[in-house]
Amino acid sequence: MGKVIAKNVITRKPGYLYYVDGKGNVCEAKMARGGKKKKKKAVKKKVVKKKTVKKKPAKKKKR
User: Do residues 18 and 26 make contact, with C-beta atoms less than 8 angstroms apart?
Assistant: First the structure.
């Protein structure tokens, strides 16, 4: 588990990860995901009319 050494030393940017490397430097790396939230697009649903198919009467089998 990490240890907090100092607070509010750097100004953080959204979408970046901050860590201390092996030499003791504070490093900034772009996160693979995160940062700004994406807006949801409104999806319009298309109304599909079902075609009515008339069934033909079944033919009687001859014996």
Answer: yes
